[in-house]
Amino acid sequence: MTSRKISRTLGVNIDHVATLRQARRGFEPSVLEAAREARRGGADGITVHLREDRRHIQDKDVLELKRQIRLPLNLEMSIAPEILRIALKVRPEKACLVPEKRQEITTEGGLDLFRKKRQLRRTIRALLHEKIEVSLFIDPDERQVREAAHLGASAIEIHTGAYANAKGKARVRELERIRRGAVLGSNLGLRIHAGHGLNYGNISPLLAIPEIREFNIGHSIVSRAVFVGLRTAVAEMKKLISAK
Length: 244
Description:
Layout (H helix, E strand, L loop, with lengths): L8 E5 L1 H8 L8 H10 L4 E5 L9 H10 L4 E5 L3 H10 L3 E4 L19 H13 L3 E6 L3 H10 L3 E5 L1 H5 L2 H20 L3 E5 L16 E6 L1 H10 L1 H12 L3
Parallel strand pairs: 1-2, 1-8, 2-3, 3-4, 4-5, 5-6, 6-7, 7-8
Helix pairs in contact: 2-10, 6-8, 9-10
């Protein structure tokens, strides 16, 4: 008896295309064209993080992506009231609530769902009311996974940064943490996503975790695109996650 192939989706994060554009505060490279090339390469969705400091993606980018790109838009966002107002105006198909610090280079860890719980709950409810799927970006910690279900989220995105940065036995331990978190979340009725630090070399072990149904990947794809083009870079990653 042959095992059934697992259907997984790839969300391509194009923040770093905007990072390059913002280096000169100009118009190129185009975030819209990057999204179109990602779609041509097989992306199932486009992910962008509208940070409070607007260091890369701008408000206009989010509006244009929602209006012009024929793919689901996943908006990574903090729970700041200003950002929530924009999300409710744009109404992306998905919203992923993430922690945010002004001084960090990139997101350094998962949300602590036990902090600012009242504001977090209000944000989730407001997004769900507009039929926006809500995921919570968390570490693969049992308490956090259970709290995500308790808060009524649609999904969790497991922060894979510790796994990506670990080596040897430490990486094996982090992989097991991810597996346990994914299994628990799935049993609690959550859709399981994963992302952060994933690349063409380290994603393979995660494909042995059937509960993970969506990967959101950005930096490694944009880095690869410097050499082969964005469409090809996306296609290569899509082929990897579709292999099992």
